[in-house]
């Protein structure tokens, strides 16, 4: 079976001239020496990027999804290939409704009518991993039921094994292929794909995002009904809205498209910098707009996460970009360890300025984030800057925001929209508010530890010989430092309590 599938992959690759792409990428390499004499007679009317997209579509939904993920790696791909792969659509024919019913009954151990008294057997959406049906719960609530495509795990495992084999082959015959690390890319793809095979994982993502934006005036996230969720079935609140791509319908309903575009930017930066947890698949097919103008998010299979270090680094870079402080951008790259310590700040500063300066004071319609990111990645390679894997999904989401912005308001100035938000966030991170928030967060810990401090100091003294005067001096000095620290914390805690009391009384 695997040999048959491998033969099929090789056949499709040859038919679309993908073997020739190895020669184009590395004309003096080992692959070129082997293949060039055999390929001179072949001519293709379509560009290489189009041929690659068509080959992935011919190989089926798993390869289509791989191409989608690969399109976000603009640090690895030529621009024409990345742009063409971004056109891949994860649309496949639905599987029979009888199989969906069987999956639901197997998951809950009951007949379908006992789980969902009303169930629309015609799916409303179908993709490579799952499809969605509308239904009603016993209490009459309208829901959307996502059902995993049967038999997906062995198919995915099979195709991933073949992808890894092909990646090894590319590394073996191409020096440039080794630099692009195809096996690492396949492993990264496998992680995201296996996450999508557990709909409980997606339900948890949805629930977290809903909690983060509870009572938000900008974004609505459906409620998850956990009693009706399993590994192969996810049930959530049915959402009513207009697809965000239908701009004429939205305008006819009185929705302010310019305000909607600004809200999209704020939602993105809120997810990234406030929460460190963001919807990483926000293309137009996953977004509706409610009649009150709020965004409605759908499909939570892919999310991105950032830790505090990532958020702080990104915020500093964004603010430095917006202020055109390219020296600070260069310094942040070196301080974070992304660029080698021996990198000259002035040289990296000049390179970043060359890339970024032309984009300022221009509307979004005249800016291509794809080209900007590509040039930044090319600059990064020249200075041996490491592209951090945790930011790949963030890059993809930025590209989606670009597409939405162009649809809703081509004149949107992303920089002016985002800058005030980032400045407020940074002031909370490094200003006096940050000190008070930190004291407020640490207060329960210190309330527990403070009473134990004298006993801990006494125990340490008792463990050492009394004649060790030097150690005693050190411990006494440490005790004095602790007292000063505790005094500062106590003052900060009092300030926090005073502010809180003033807020409540006011």
Automatic annotation (TrEMBL):
Pathway(s) annotated for this protein in UniProt: Cofactor biosynthesis; ubiquinone biosynthesis [regulation]
Keywords carried by this UniProt record: ATP-binding, Cell inner membrane, Cell membrane, Kinase, Membrane, Nucleotide-binding, Transferase, Transmembrane, Transmembrane helix, Ubiquinone, Ubiquinone biosynthesis
GO cellular component terms, semicolon-separated: plasma membrane
Domain Protein kinase, residue spans: 118-506
One Pfam family from the record: ABC1
Keyword flag Amino-acid biosynthesis: no
Matches recorded under SUPFAM superfamilies: Protein kinase-like (PK-like)
Active-site feature positions: 281 (proton acceptor)
GO BP, one annotated term: ubiquinone biosynthetic process
Binding residue positions for ATP: 124-132, 146
EC number in record: 2.7.-.-
Origin: domain of life: Bacteria
UniProt key word Glycosyltransferase: no
Enzyme class: transferase
GO MF assignments: ATP binding; protein kinase activity
Family: Belongs to the protein kinase superfamily. ADCK protein kinase family.
Family matches, as HAMAP family: UbiB
Function: Is probably a protein kinase regulator of UbiI activity which is involved in aerobic coenzyme Q (ubiquinone) biosynthesis.
Protein name, entry field: Probable protein kinase UbiB
Organism for this UniProt entry: Oryzomicrobium terrae
